[in-house]
Automatic annotation (TrEMBL):
SMART domains: WD40 (SM00320)
GO biological process: Arp2/3 complex-mediated actin nucleation
Record-given protein name: Actin-related protein 2/3 complex subunit
Organism annotation: Riccia sorocarpa
Cellular compartments per GO CC: Arp2/3 protein complex
Record's keyword annotation contains rRNA processing: no
Keywords: Actin-binding, Cytoplasm, Cytoskeleton, Repeat, WD repeat
Amino acid sequence: MAVVASHQLARSITAHSWNATLTMIAVCPNNSEVHIYKGTPAPDSVWEKVFVLKKHDQLVSGIDWAPISDYIVTCSHDRNSYVWSFDGAQWQPTLVILRLNRAAISVDWSPKENKFVVGSGAKSVCVCFYEAENNWWVSKIIRKKHNSTVTGVAWHPNNLLIATTSTDCKCRVFSAYIKGVDSKINPGTAFADTKFGEQIIQLDLANGWSFGVRWSPSGNSLAYVGHDSSLHIVSDIGPTPSHQTINLRHLPLREILFLSETRLVGGGFDCNPMLFEIDPKRGVWTFAKFIDEAKSSTHDLKSSTLFLEAMGRFHGQTRRGSHEIFETSRASGLAHDNCITCIVPLISEGEVTGQEPGEKVVQAFSTSGVDGRLVIWSFSNITELLAKIQI
């Protein structure tokens, strides 16, 4: 794994998303605008700002660029969401009727791109779809299921289920089937008899705010993180799921991404992406390594230790005469020097040694965060990977 490129785009980045051909990227520079750059993940690519989307009047908190329709969806603390379409010259916004009285926090297109979901500070989730008769996007709302802000949303690959995380420390899975929008479900399909908004499962595994929920490529597993420095992987979603909790000896994660069914990467307050893998001998998830290989200086380690000792005291882990200190990777020379808040997959390849036959494996991804940097990471030669993309 290597850092391919790093771009300082703003003082801070809230969210980012790429188009399907990886030739343009939409970025929110921690304000009410979305900046679109022309450029690629290649190390020698020169980035040029070509569009600025101005419609929101408060912080844009989420961006997702649909790979097939080429629509961009944004959500904001102004309680609104817009779907942007390109008319050949400019990006034109269409207002989405969310009916929220609090900020919109997160957004995600469904796999078939006929719906998207918005998490909000109103303790509710909006599942949005297009009404051709009225030429607008409307929403159906899942209410009274969350006790606090919905921090993350993610679609299952089947286009019918959504997973959410919340500051009530829980992760939940709901049915998002909408009659007239989704095709009729085969009776043999799992959860075929569930109605819109029905809660499939509630996971109460974290002891802190929950973030960064993601499904594995097959949809057989989901993972999310807790602000108590924990990572939770859950399989066999249903009445009797199996789960594993990894209590990290590091600062909390904020975002995760499945690279395959057996590997995932997480990023957060350590400023250094962390790789997790399934131990083939024991069949359990374990922390493998930090991806950024920068070396720590004595000064950096001393500063981090002092900070983490205070953190340990806050968690009640310091005892009279002795104390336990969390480990940290924070060091000078890292690609990021502040919290990583967004991880986006770039390129997936076919069969790879050690994986199931035919399984797609993410070979490159990008991260952004509070430091305003957008960093490209790749397990393989990025130039060769980009050459394989059909444009």
